[in-house]
Amino acid sequence: MSFPTHRLRRLRGSPLIRRMVRETRVTVDDFIYPLFVTHAETMPIPSMPGINRFSVDDLCREVEEVAKLGILAVMLFGIPEEKDDAGSGAYAEDGIVPRALRALKKSIGDDLLLLADVCLCEYTSHGHCGVLDEGRWTMDDMSTDAEAAMKSSSIVHRHSSTVANDPTLELLAKAAVVYAQSGADIIAPSDMMDGRVAAIRSALDVAGYVETPILSYAAKYSSGFYGPFREAAGSAPQFGDRRTYQMDPANRREAVREAALDIEEGADIIMVKPALPYLDIIRDVRGRFDLPVAAYNVSGEYAMVKAAAQNGWIDEDRVIGEVLTSIKRAGADIILTYHAKEFAQRKLNDSI
Ligand code: PBG
Fold first, then answer.
1. Cβ atoms of residues 60 and 108 within 8 Å
2. What's the Cα-to-Cα distance from 259 to each of 75, 172, 220, 286, rounded to whole Å?
3. Is 105 annotated in the active site?
4. For the segment 19-66, what is each residue's pLDDT rounded down to a tens digit?
5. Could you tell me the distance, in angstroms and rounded to a whole number, from the CA of residue 200 to the centre of ligand 1?
6. Residue 76 — pLDDT band, cuts 50, 70, 90?
7. Which of 51, 74, 119 to mutate to test the pocket of ligand 1 (most atoms within 8 A of CB)?
8. How confident is the model over 327-348, as a mean pLDDT?
9. First vs last C-alpha separation in the chain
10. How far is the CA of 32 from the centre of ligand 1 (A)?
11. Which secondary-structure segment (H or E) carries 241?
12. How crowded is residue 288: how many other Cβ atoms within 10 Å of its Cβ?
């Protein structure tokens, strides 16, 4: 009989004793703060209260503030002036992310790590993460009739399967090198093309960036939780969806295969994304590999917390603490989260 000898409530009796036996602690050191940069004026993102798309000047000010709060790293996403079929804004030397990186290197120097997301979807007119199979689909074909026709699933399938893997690799590698040259400290490919970590690693090495780490979005699921991000970046696919390259939410073993391949290809840090609906995957990846594991607490996860809090339905600070603690408890060493700044400002370390 363990009762009454064993009373687990003994270690829960006061805030101090709870703090003493707490197993998981979230600190500001755990965070990477995602930031959007645009050619245009700074504008709030309606579905992500508290988050903006920044002009380059405002971005520099924001990053200084973030660094003062003790946050170690930011991840940049660019919103280009113009989009085209080939996503050329992603790898143009005067593109928005290279410009932002150069400005940040000047203003913040090495006081904070600059990560650059590598993907084409913010830069392609069709909104997909790679280029399309030549001749099979162009934006000129897109009419309202075509859109209506796409709703029939066979057509959606045909079109969504035309994202061309191998031709995309070259462009991703080119973007990675341009970002490294512009001052990125870490390169973070999020496109989910096969073989992109190897392609990026060898391009970085050839260009002399042998010391630049790759954080790969290794297990990135085809998720409904990216909605607000796509609004922010204007990157929703114009036809079909991302199911032919991002992972099926039902698959667990496949995430381990994805991570293993990225590691073999040279990834230095592996990421699981989204975070909350995939805590089991974070745990699996943590258990199987010894690399640092990152998790992306994505835009839709953030929007849910904000919406409920604005309605007075949840205690926001408590929920933010609980969300981030659960991601860390699942095994993440690094958390990409839009909550990073408010967590640091409001000192939410003990908000649970
Ligand atoms: C680009 C990319 C996306 C996110 C990060 N990188 C969007 C997508 O795949 O549609 C989503 C991040 C978020 O929702 O916060 N491929």
1. yes
2. 21, 19, 10, 10
3. no
4. 999 999 999 999 999 999 999 999 999 999 999 999 999 999 999 999
5. 19
6. very high
7. 119
8. 98
9. 33
10. 15
11. none
12. 14
Confidence (pLDDT) at 3: 85
Ligand 1 atom nearest 129 alpha carbon: 16
Residue type for position 340: A
> Tokens representing 78?
């660019």
Of 68, 105, 106, 220, catalytic: 220
Average pLDDT on 321-349 reads: 97
Q: What is the pLDDT of residue 147?
A: 52
Distance CA 169, CA 129 (A): 11
Ligand 1 centroid to Cα of residue 193, in Å, is 14
**Ligand 1 pocket at CB < 6 A:** 117, 119, 121, 129, 190, 226, 229-230, 298-299
| Residue to substitute in 83, 222, 229, 276 for testing ligand 1 pocket (most ligand atoms within 8 angstroms of CB) | 229
Pairing of strands 215-220, 43-44: unpaired
Ligand 1, atom 5: closest residue by C-alpha: 190
Distance 116 CA to ligand 1 centre (A): 13
Tell which atom from ligand 1 comes closest to the C-alpha of 192. Answer: 16
Distance 9 CA to ligand 1 centre (A): 42
Q: Specify the higher pLDDT residue, 28 or 162.
A: 28
Instruction: Please provide the average confidence, as pLDDT, over all residues in the chain.
Output: 93
Using the atom order of ligand 1, give the atom closest to the CA of residue 220. 9
Torsion sign over Cα 301, 307, 310, 315:
negative
36 class by beta-carbon count within 10 Å (0-12 exposed, 13-18 middle, 19+ buried) = buried
Q: Does the structure show a pLDDT above 60 at 209?
A: yes
Does the annotation count 273 as an active-site position?
Answer: yes
Asked whether the bond before 274 is cis by omega within 30 degrees of 0, the reply is: yes
Can you tell me whether residue 272 is helix, strand or coil? Answer: strand
Q: Which residues contact 324 (CB under 8 A, 6 or more apart)?
A: 26, 30, 297, 335, 337, 339, 343, 348
Ordered DSSP codes for 54-94:
EPHHHHHHHHHHHHHTT--EEEEEEE-S--BTT-GGGT-TT
